[in-house]
Write the structure tokens for this entry.
Amino acid sequence: MKILVLVSQTQDTEAKIQVSSSGDSIDTGGMKWIMNPYDEFAVEEAIQTKEKHGGEVVIISVGPDRVLETIRQALAMGADSAVQIKGDSFAETDSFTVGKVIGGEIKKLGDFDIVFTGMKIIDEESGQVGVQVAEELGIPHVSLVSKVIQVDPAGKKAVCQKEIDGGHVTVEVPLPCLITCPDAMNEPRYASLPGIMKAKKKPLTVVNAEDLNLEELGLSAQALGKEGARVKTTQIKVPEIERKLTIIKGSDEPMVKGEEVERSAEELIKLLREEAKVI
Amino acid sequence: MSNEVWVVADLKIDGSVRKVTFEALSEAGNKVAGKLGGKLCGVLIGSGVSGHAAELGKYGAEKVYVVDNDLLKDFNTEGYTIALSELIKKHEPAVVIGGNTVFGQDYFPRVAARVGAGVTMDAISIDISEQNTLKIERFSHSSKAIPTQVFHQNYPMMTTVRPNSFKAVENPKDPEIVEGGVEINPADIKTKVIELQTKESDRPELTEAERVISGGRGLGSEENFKYIYQLADILGAAAGATRAAVDAGYCPYDMQVGQTGKAVSPNLYIAIAISGSVQHFAGMGSSKVIVAINKDPDAPIFQKCDYGIVGDLFDVLPPFTEKVRSLIAEG
Ligand SMILES: Cc1cc2nc3c(=O)[nH]c(=O)nc-3n(C[C@H](O)[C@H](O)[C@H](O)COP(=O)(O)OP(=O)(O)OC[C@H]3O[C@@H](n4cnc5c(N)ncnc54)[C@H](O)[C@@H]3O)c2cc1C
Ligand SMILES: Cc1cc2nc3c(=O)[nH]c(=O)nc-3n(C[C@H](O)[C@H](O)[C@H](O)COP(=O)(O)OP(=O)(O)OC[C@H]3O[C@@H](n4cnc5c(N)ncnc54)[C@H](O)[C@@H]3O)c2cc1C
């Protein structure tokens, strides 16, 4: 089987967020870049599929050279080769264009069976690229798959389970298809030391953004970068919800104990009823 | 292009219209259609859905487009994508809005790619920019940032909206019904639903609920989650959980609230034995009132909640639940 994985790099959102002086972007100076956590699930699912059915796993990543670190991590986990679509100054290219560009490169790779992607990037949180790549490729997609139940390369189909509000569905989808991965579908493996050593020797193809044939993709010459974006970020604010911070504690130690327990319950209910008016 | 503003109805498994549809109609009527001078329209896609047109009218839809087709019985990406894309190509609306539900997330980006539209997901405000285009706000960076995003003059402009972000206000209209006239070929539907399991639950859906009671790892077992369910049922609330509780097997994944679970913004969120991680807050940080019960006074949640008790849940919750029960019984 030929299995493709779209892997993106993201800012570690554990970090403190600071708006840049221009007011319309996040200051990334000093921020840590990591593999997008959902893409780790995608890589793991791809490797498990390869382990069951044989074949190869190809990583595709768009971005500047810092993404090489993430690509190497995926290769060290067990992927076989990678394609980097390299562009340094197109940070705010919209998802629509990213989808077209990735789709265009995939078409050049020849036949494939499955594309795995994350459900969204945890910094921008657009949640569109995967599904839009499927559209560009003209193949079906199943989004937010909680479990890949079966992949049948000979019968050219896959069976997946997906959580929906109020239940879950099991769907059968013909191959080739694209699957987007949410949380908790598997446990991504760590890269082993031998894996890390081997990753260095695995094939990497670099495609320069300047060499992309935008016209062929149906994109305008300005499509890459902020100017061509269909949607632009004009301002970013950091939400500041003032919380009341009314915390009921015990008198001797922080925890309420003994009689204080009943009293604290009563006090909380009073606050919720009279001050917050929510019960 | 017309200057119509469309709200696509989001349907539940049982075929009823989800609340987010009415919220979107109300907000779009005030903030978008009004300012664009366009007609507010509803869109119904499914099987046996025509009957819902009056409900959309109740919340301000002056016109309702209907694609009613047996092939659209259970939600399927391909059928819905064809239906909405073809409708858009035929009638050229200015704005198309849907709910950011599992369904909206599945096919809105695909429709946008097909019709060449710009799309944003999970908006928490919708408005019109100085350039007369759609302008939205949403959360990013694990809900630590709120970007304002303005659409380019490229039509249609599409977005999904987060449930519970707007008030649904009645504004009765008698909508004109327009048959969509979209053909769907059975061969176009490649993904087949082979099993649909619905969960029987009297509790409201997490994303729609006015109140949410959630439990964390500190509950310690599946058995102990009964404390969460009891309080939830007394308050008519939905029950949620952290990823740590889900991973430990105390409850199913569909209860997970957070960055990788559901995004909720109820009036009241009670977090029991939850430390208050960034990822959990990404899904509930916009709740109006946050209450925490935790035995660790240094738990991060105590720095970002409205009310809290430092105490052992097994001590505090039983009397709290009892008192709430008698209070509610008194009315
Ligand atoms: C030629 C080019 C150059 C670029 N250069 C830069 C740059 O220098 N700096 C910068 O910050 N951004 C750059 N970008 C854009 C950026 O890399 C992201 O692709 C973009 O932010 C999309 O994010 P999203 O929020 O729409 O992703 P989402 O829709 O939330 O992502 C969903 C999933 O799609 C896949 N995916 C998304 N983006 C990528 C990607 N880039 N590569 C592989 N898979 C992906 C992942 O599986 C991800 O989980 C560039 C884009 C292009 C086309
Ligand atoms: C990529 C990524 C995505 C994630 N997505 C999510 C997500 O969507 N949702 C999510 O919730 N998490 C998510 N997480 C996990 C998150 O980082 C935290 O690990 C998780 O939220 C912790 O859950 P918790 O608060 O239940 O557990 P803990 O952090 O272990 O906290 C348990 C709390 O219970 C208290 N406690 C214990 N016993 C008692 C008692 N008897 N009475 C009162 N209090 C008690 C303790 O003091 C402690 O504060 C994600 C993590 C990553 C890396």
